[in-house]
Amino acid sequence: MQLLQDKIRDFGNVLSPTVLKVDAFLNHQIDAALMKAVGEEFAERFKDVQATKILTLESSGIAPATMLGLVLGLPVIFARKRKSLTLSGNLLSATVHSFTKNVTSEISVSRDFLQAGDQVIIIDDFLANGEAVRGLLSVVAQAEATAVGVGIVIEKGFQHGGKELRDNGVRVESLAIIDSMDTDHIRFR
Amino acid sequence: MQLLQDKIRDFGNVLSPTVLKVDAFLNHQIDAALMKAVGEEFAERFKDVQATKILTLESSGIAPATMLGLVLGLPVIFARKRKSLTLSGNLLSATVHSFTKNVTSEISVSRDFLQAGDQVIIIDDFLANGEAVRGLLSVVAQAEATAVGVGIVIEKGFQHGGKELRDNGVRVESLAIIDSMDTDHIRFR
């Protein structure tokens, strides 16, 4: 997706060969028009699937997932990393380690919103080691629903998550795949 | 906002006289079309102000704030409750206690995205005691920016946050204000 690659080149900040900071448009400040274009691109990529739900993980997945939900007219569920008084009982949970935040979280989705037979598109901002997506796939499986695809805004193609998921038969659609990066240059696949 | 009140009546769940669960369309599952309508309504309410930024707090403020950002063509910043490897240095911070989650968080915004002179619309999902909004107002003040208004999806009018803010001269636009609620009935102002 050219618009996204341009944003990454112009506003991304390579902090190390593995850490890309995109706080200017995705992870802290959000470019709403870009998110709308991202949602439309996901809808185009998944136009052949009959999805019933969109599932993401708080917080940075929410904006692109909501824009996809708007295009497809589907409910968007965001898995919670923290417990809330109002989210209790009857939860589908999985453990996810975030290398960027260096924390292990239990992610939770209420059974009220994910049912057996649901056809789920999983959306996330980044794919690196694949921890978050594996947690979301586990939640979908626990609900006896089906993950019909995974949509990723930025995939770090030099880390193993995307390859492992695809090798396991998961359909992964990444709008930008970075093959390598340093402070001078970001190379896209 | 009638559409929102209808959603609250039809899908809200009063857990106690002070706790309203709206996980079906706002806090866990997101109704994207409703969020778009909410964004448009905020834009209408704030059509007289010349805002330059929209500020919210992860996670449930992100969808309505992003939809407002889309309508107004403005950047949306979400304050972080947790630290990230990529969010560091040069932070504007405030302490916020959440009564619903029963945790005290330090919320943070990078100085990179909020500058002196910015005219900021603050958006949040709920207003009860006003803790989150006060934290966001503190962040705006630290940046030497101006909060031109606060947009709230659901205000619990029977708690003191909204009154205190308005008494202090803060412009608060709440799309639904609940005066009282019990399991049988939700009464809107």
Automatic annotation (TrEMBL), chains A, B:
SUPFAM superfamilies (alphabetical): PRTase-like
Subcellular location: Cytoplasm
Pathway: Purine metabolism; XMP biosynthesis via salvage pathway; XMP from xanthine: step 1/1
Keyword set includes Transmembrane helix: yes
Major enzyme class: transferase
Gene Ontology terms, MF aspect: xanthine phosphoribosyltransferase activity
Alphabetical list of CDD domains matching this protein: PRTases_typeI (cd06223)
Reactions the enzyme catalyzes: XMP + diphosphate = xanthine + 5-phospho-alpha-D-ribose 1-diphosphate
Alphabetical keyword list: Cytoplasm, Glycosyltransferase, Membrane, Purine salvage, Transferase, Transmembrane, Transmembrane helix
Protein residues bound to xanthine: 20, 27, 156
EC number(s) from the headed UniProt entry: 2.4.2.22
Main location class: cytoplasm
Pfam families: Pribosyltran
UniProt KW Nucleus keyword: no
Residues covered by the Phosphoribosyltransferase domain: 30-157
Gene3D superfamilies: 3.40.50.2020
Function summary: Converts the preformed base xanthine, a product of nucleic acid breakdown, to xanthosine 5'-monophosphate (XMP), so it can be reused for RNA or DNA synthesis.
HAMAP family for this protein: XPRTase
Official protein name in the record: Xanthine phosphoribosyltransferase
Organism expressing this protein natively: Vitreoscilla massiliensis
